[in-house]
What we know:
Number of domains of chain A: 1
Structural class of chain A: mainly alpha
Number of helices of chain A: 13
Order of helices and strands of chain A: HHHHHHHHHHHHH
Number of domains of chain B: 1
Helix content of chain B: over 70%
Order of helices and strands of chain B: HHHHHHHHHHHHHH
CATH architecture of chain A: Orthogonal Bundle
CATH architecture of chain B: Orthogonal Bundle
Number of helices of chain B: 14
CATH class of chain B: Mainly Alpha
Structural class of chain B: mainly alpha
CATH superfamily of chain A: MetI-like
CATH class of chain A: Mainly Alpha
Largest sheet of chain A: none
CATH topology of chain B: MetI-like fold
CATH topology of chain A: MetI-like fold
Oligomer: heterodimer
Strand content of chain B: under 5%
Radius of gyration of chain A: 24 Å
Distance between the termini of chain A: 39 Å
Distance between the termini of chain B: 27 Å
CATH superfamily of chain B: MetI-like
Largest sheet of chain B: none
Amino acid sequence: MSDRDRGSRILLNGALIVFGAMSLFPLLWMLSASFMATGEATQLPPSIIPHHPTLEHYRDLFGRLALGRYALNSALVAVVTTVCALAINSAAGYAFAKLRFQGRDSTFRVLAAGLAIPVQVAMLPLFLLVKSLGLVNNYGGVIIPGLASIFGIFLVRQYALAIPDDLLDAARIDGASEARVFWSVVLPTIQPVLATLALWTFLATWNDFMWPLIVLSDDRKYTLPVALAGLVGEHAQDVELMMAGAVITVLPVLILFLMLQRYYVEGVTEGSVK
Amino acid sequence: MSGKGRRGIAPGWWFVSPALLLIVVFFLGPVIAAVGLSFTDVDLYALADWHAARWVGFRNYSRVLHEPLFWQAMKNTLYFAIVGGPLTVAASLGAAMLVNARAVRWKGTARAVFFAPFVTTLVAVAIVWRYLYHPRYGLFNWMLGHVGVHQIDWLGDPRWAMPAIILMATWKNFGYNMLICIAGLQNIPRELHEAAALDGATPWQRFRHVTLPMLAPTLFFVVVVTMIGYLQLFTEPYVMTQGGPLRATTSLVLYMYEEGFRWWRLGVAAAIAFLLFILIVLFTLLQRRISPKAAA
């Protein structure tokens, strides 16, 4: 290897480490500060590593401030949304890809056009609708409007287009109903994209802020992000406590992402490069 | 052809009907209703008694368009999108080229590290950054102090608040476009680089004359898509600055939220939402014009 190659290798890997450090630094500081004693994160010069690591803020959050309740609320909303959204969007995505019915293509074009409309445009009438259905301050109001996703339908459709028609027809000739074909042939075939869709839906729901903020008025029903945004109003001075709250909110999604990142990454490339 | 010649509804409709029903009732219907709402004076009183609501024609629009705060919010939103979009994609491209470089090790780990901020909860990391930006004990000012930069009141100074939010958003989002850039880079034929290298092109020349032109359609596409996403800025100012200082970070969506859900002037808020929609349509048309291929 020439000196120039070695030089560029060191340079590139050095740049990579700097870039990576910048990427992780806010998250690492959040984790570190969450274990600091009260007041330590606001000292000068700042401490980077906690001198006497403590769990007091986590105890405080789960005890006095009942953050466990919000974590459960978030988990409930995210799990129910994910399960229902999977069923609804995979059925629609498959049908748009593989079943022929009148009006299919024009319907699909309407959906494609809808993809360009920002959700905020719908939000005000949607709130009035949710209110008239009695779903304000109710998880139904948080969950139901987001169940069907045009993006999710596109993702499944894109993947299902590759299913060979022969495979479906063979099952039909064997006497399987359309529902049966979907359940026993299609779903197993499109499993990877289902994993992608499930992960996307779960993370998006867990992280969502604006809509739950609007719909949920009773603070016992808050999801974690809404509760956290409220908490920072009262406890802005308690840096270490807030960092523990941020850790509790971020950690579940980070772990889930690290375990299943293959599916997540596939979703990005599948959904946008096409 | 399944379904043809059979009686009743084609099975395809059964499969799509739950999704379509939900989309029509909870999305497309409300979008159309938003147009109507923007021509009414629906407010807190009308919420209690619908007879109090009246048609007011274009009054909400003319009121909003004569409101200095609307133009301030428009300016802030465009500032965020037009500076933040390209900046984010530039970071994405840099990261993608690093991860894609042949000499680099631990590619998978690097990719996961760069992508991690994107999956985190925006509210939580916005709070983290709020403390990092603190003028006295924030780590950013402490680090900048070592290189002789005097204390910056990141979120308290109207000139710095928006750049601070842009930096945070860049950090949070560059990993997403990085994945698309990596895919784009891998589509560039190796031979092009090798031919350029044989002709004695420096790495910079190869970047300038091979990578950039080959990647240009992808880059334009992701810049515009990122900008469209950024036009919907809300959570960062809500959590970090409450739209301040001196309204320097009030975005259109935050303004809409305040009008609609704090003051319950739903008609006015719907008009703001619609003006935002028009803005987004303009950006979408721009995207279709620039890259007809990528938009298909």
